[in-house]
Amino acid sequence: MLANQTLLQHPSRPEVGAPVLEVEHLTVGVPGVGAIINDLNLTIQRGEVLALVGESGSGKSMTARSLMRLMPSGISILDGTERVCGDEVLSLSENKFNEYRGARIAMLFQQPHVMLDPTCTVGAQVAEALHVHRHLSAEEEHERVLQLFRDVGIPEPEERMKCYPHQMSGGMAQRVMIAAALSAEPDILIADEPTTALDVTVQAQILQLLDRKRRESNLSILLITHDLSVVSAIADRVAVMYSGEIVEQGTTQEILHSPKHPYTQSLIHCSLLEADESGALYAIPGNPPELLSEIEGCRFRSRCPVAEQWGHPEVCSRLAPPMVEHDGSGCCARCWVGASDDIQAQAIRTCQSDKEDRHDGC
Ligand SMILES: Nc1ncnc2c1ncn2[C@@H]1O[C@H](COP(=O)(O)OP(=O)(O)OP(=O)(O)O)[C@@H](O)[C@H]1O
Ligand code: SF4
Ligand SMILES: [Mg+2]
Q1: Is the CB of 336 under 6 A from ligand 2?
Q2: Model-level pTM?
Q3: Residue 105 maps to which CATH number?
Q4: Mean pLDDT across the stretch 42-69?
Q5: From the CB of residue 305, how many other CB atoms can be counted at a distance below 10 Å?
Q6: Which H/E stretch holds residue 249?
Q7: How far is residue 158 from each of residues 154, 155, 308, measured CA to CA in Å?
Q8: How many distinct structural domains can be found in the chain?
């Protein structure tokens, strides 16, 4: 029998509550053209689940891929830092980063059947993932894969290890992917819509599995999802993404029950699936701006129902709002409304003097 203790020992695991992932000013885009992800800041503590939510195209998957340094060709990291368990990793060579990828920060994708190799048994694929980071004998490797299959709830693991991906259901295939992602016992799991392709019952099982792994081994999870009921069930904190920027961050309770940013408020309104008198479901009017284009002012300005009510719409149109804590709630939002009186007054003055300068220029 394999000595589990050997595998469970990991160099310098952070204490519970200590940060395992710290991202500052991350900007990702096409060099010389523009940014897709702009000035992204987030921290995840050991054992914490941070949900990243936002509408389609807002940059959630690009964020995940950037943190794993798996961007599509033509896209580069333009600025910022990423610390994994205290170590800055964005400046590392590809070879050195490979020591972190999988071992300390792992990723789970949306469609398990697309990610699994159809020509290889699922047992061999998990063994391969394990092999990259742990040098075990063939017998130890077999035992470890068996243990991982049991751990993620795959019944008859000895038999299932010999199956090919097409012989498994979506839920079982996603369990295989989780086994592969967790094989080297990473500190952080980035899960990009891990349940979207699964039916509702299986979705709940996979979420329970991730939640159990978090509680048992203090795994930290960055969970990307569209589904606010998933957020409510599993996340400790939430970051809301709009047009390549995080526009609000706070505890799950704060964000879902007392959102500060008009975009978050609209997103939650959409999730309630309320119909108006004509029977039409509420949808946020308009579209987000083109990500690679130069954007002046607040990115949500053209869709925002609050800017005019506030009385200083010119500030929203001309100045990008900073991320500030609102009402001492611990919840931060990128919106002028709700910022302190001093910050608002300063923005209004800047806008007025800009206007006067322009008139003088004429
Ligand atoms: N290879 C690429 N080159 C240029 N832009 C890209 C490339 N891949 C993605 N993008 C742009 O990056 C933006 C963010 O895409 P991303 O896939 O991160 O969105 P998302 O929030 O994950 O959306 P969804 O919820 O639909 O998965 C998109 O607007 C897309 O146009
Ligand atoms: S800064 Fe202005 S436009 Fe942007 S979300 Fe706040 S109120 Fe709306
Ligand atoms: Mg995506």
Answers
A1: yes
A2: 0.92
A3: 3.40.50.300
A4: 96
A5: 12
A6: strand 245-251
A7: 10, 9, 63
A8: 2
